[in-house]
Fold this protein.
Amino acid sequence: MARRLAFAVLALPFALAACNTSAPSPQASAPPPGAYANLPAGVSPPGFRLPEGAGCTASIARWKAIQDNDLATGHVGQSVYDRIRKDIDQASAACQAGRDAEAQAMVRASRVRNGYPDG
């Protein structure tokens, strides 16, 4: 019984210390191409996270991350990726010019046109 109590007393500081560690921040975009090297086709690497935020900048960043990931996993071919990148570049230009609603509408239209859910 005394051993169990001693173990619990010694283990408690370590358990509490684990609660105080900060979680890693989410990734802002798709992992580098090397992260896909040993994965089966169609599988995203562990830790893949979409960028967070609001407004046209965040919508564009998420759409770009999805496309980068889909190209790397083989879900889209280079020609489709290139076509969508043109949409992304046009939406980005509208966003940078302060036309948030127009830029977000362009992202939504690109998603729908290419068979992705409007989200």
Summary: The chain is about 60% helix and 0% strand. Confidence is low (pLDDT under 50) at residues 1-28. Residues 53-119 form one domain.
